[in-house]
Amino acid sequence: MHDACLESEMKLLVFSVICTFLHVSGQNPKGRWSLLPNVLVLEVDGSLGQQPLACLSPTDKMLRRDNKSEDIFWKKNGVDQAQRGNSYLVQLEESLGGGEYTCYSKNGSLLNHTMVLIQEDETKRRKILVKTDQDDYLTCSAQNYDGEFHCSWTWHSSRVGKVAFIKARRVSDHNYTQCSVDASGQNWTCSSGQSKISCSVDGSGHRISCRDEQHCPYAEESKQIHITVYVRTEHFLLENYSKHFFLSQIVKPDKVRISQVNTSLIEWSYPSSWSSPYSYFPLTFQLALLRGRCRRCANPCSDSKVTKILTIHSTDVCQYEVKHKVKAVCVRAKDALCNSQWSEWSRWSQVPPKFYSSVISDGDKGAKRGRKNRQKHRKRA
Ligand SMILES: *[C@@H]1O[C@H](CO)[C@@H](O)[C@H](O)[C@H]1NC(C)=O
Ligand SMILES: *[C@@H]1O[C@H](CO)[C@@H](O)[C@H](O)[C@H]1NC(C)=O
Ligand SMILES: *[C@@H]1O[C@H](CO)[C@@H](O)[C@H](O)[C@H]1NC(C)=O
Ligand SMILES: *[C@@H]1O[C@H](CO)[C@@H](O)[C@H](O)[C@H]1NC(C)=O
Ligand SMILES: *[C@@H]1O[C@H](CO)[C@@H](O)[C@H](O)[C@H]1NC(C)=O
Ligand SMILES: *[C@@H]1O[C@H](CO)[C@@H](O)[C@H](O)[C@H]1NC(C)=O
Ligand SMILES: *[C@@H]1O[C@H](CO)[C@@H](O)[C@H](O)[C@H]1NC(C)=O
């Protein structure tokens, strides 16, 4: 009988421990962490909640000397608040509660400031960015293998946003990555044991340019780049968007420049931004011969009637003799060794009809040599 009693007491105890636990896990905010000095992120579930902010740390000499914390007053986004004292309770509800909180002494001098950002914890639905045509939020590309890349995004039409934080690293860096921003708020640097990547936000506000400072163009990449962009709205809502890739997966050459040699001969060469030597970084070119005119097409190279597609491997300047019936020629390029993106098309169109011949392609041997070299290199890496 005694044992049974004890047992039921135990059950009660376990029950109340579980209740306490449930109560704690039902609290809002669910979590809080510091994104940058003076920037606090609150992970909220949408329910009512409170988060205290301290103006001065308890050890601050002004607090200790005067011990008049009731003289401290607060503003939220520049608007006076009724709450007084060293501690301020931020009221949370749905995605509200974020803002710039400032505290002042009696005489009006600024004592401290904290930006509170709200991260919704059950956001199946993203609110700040919209997906691009590639079915992703971030679109990243590199012009070459030199270690620079760009990522861009599209803001949701009803929101005005800003970059709040950028984290970029080679993904298998297990070591802690530390990121910081300079005084301009535009240039970020992330360092860890094995990588250093710096990123800057373009003036447009929807694109960043990054550089892997330790990248070696001639070596195989063994680890992916992992980039996370934290964006916030003017209402202090925070979301993060990530992407990871090898540079070889996102490389996209710039447009080739086509020039006219004489009345029937055109030529083009590697984009000046492409990595050299070209025998090590060969490109494949694609030519589309267009017979029809397509003056009103938005994209004449892809919308027009293509009569023939030619593929040319070359590590040098390419020339092509244009036949009489061909009204226009479009050329694009891509890395010959990786299945990455084609460049945008470049277009040349026939002005007066002239004399014609057939394809000229040179430098093919060079391309094969380059490919072999790089593949050999890859196996070794
Ligand atoms: C100002 O607030 C931050 C938190 O946002 C705190 O870490 C810091 O100690 C405060 N500064 C002073 C002078 O109390
Ligand atoms: C400051 O005031 C509080 C009560 O308002 C008191 O508990 C505390 O001991 C005081 N501290 C100092 C350093 O005087
Ligand atoms: C305002 O008060 C603070 C501390 O309470 C003091 O450090 C500062 O010098 C004062 N400023 C003025 C303009 O009186
Ligand atoms: C970083 O990671 C390497 C292994 O990848 C390890 O040897 C090293 O101790 C780590 N450094 C720190 C500071 O964690
Ligand atoms: C930020 O980075 C850009 C591009 O790397 C550079 O042109 C600019 O001078 C940098 N700004 C500052 C303040 O360092
Ligand atoms: C990124 O956002 C997701 C919600 O979309 C969140 O669950 C996750 O904790 C965030 N990651 C970081 C590091 O803040
Ligand atoms: C154009 O130049 C090429 C190479 O220099 C030459 O073979 C061809 O005859 C020239 N064609 C005309 C029409 O001048």
Question: Care to describe what's here?
Answer:
This protein is mainly beta and 381 residues long. Helix content is 14%, strand content 40%. The chain has 3 domains: 30-120, Sandwich (Immunoglobulin-like), CATH 2.60.40.10; 129-250, Immunoglobulin-like (Sandwich); 258-374, Immunoglobulin-like. The protein has 5 helices and 26 strands. The chain is elongated. The chain starts with a helix and ends with a helix. The protein binds 2-acetamido-2-deoxy-beta-D-glucopyranose (7 copies). One 2-acetamido-2-deoxy-beta-D-glucopyranose is lined by residues 62, 105, 107, 109.
Write the layout of secondary structure elements.
Blueprint: H1 2-25, E1 31-36, E2 39-44, E3 49-54, H2 61-66, E4 73-76, E5 79-84, E6 87-92, E7 99-104, E8 110-120, E9 129-130, E10 139-141, E11 148-152, E12 154-155, E13 161-170, E14 178-181, E15 187-191, E16 196-201, E17 207-212, E18 225-233, E19 238-245, H3 247-250, E20 258-260, E21 265-268, E22 283-290, H4 300-303, E23 306-314, E24 318-321, E25 328-335, E26 346-349, H5 364-380
The structure holds 2-acetamido-2-deoxy-beta-D-glucopyranose (7 copies).
Quick structural overview:
With 381 residues, the protein is mainly β.
Q: Give the % helix.
A: 10-25%
Shape descriptor:
elongated
Strand order of the largest sheet: 1-2-8-7-4-5
Query: Radius of gyration over alpha carbons?
Result: 30 Å
CATH class of the largest domain: Mainly Beta
Relative strand content: 35-45%
Structural domains: how many? 3
Q: Which molecules are bound besides the chains? A: 2-acetamido-2-deoxy-beta-D-glucopyranose
Distance between the termini: 72 Å
Number of separate helices: 5
CATH superfamily of the largest domain: Immunoglobulins
The CATH architecture of the largest domain can be given as: Sandwich
Structural class: mainly beta
Question: What is the name of the CATH topology of the largest domain?
Answer: Immunoglobulin-like
Q: Biggest β-sheet: count, sense, barrel?
A: 6 strands, mixed
According to DSSP, the number of beta strands is 26
The overall average pLDDT, rounded, is 82
Question: Uncertain regions: pLDDT < 50 for 5+ in a row?
Answer: 9-25, 353-373, 377-381
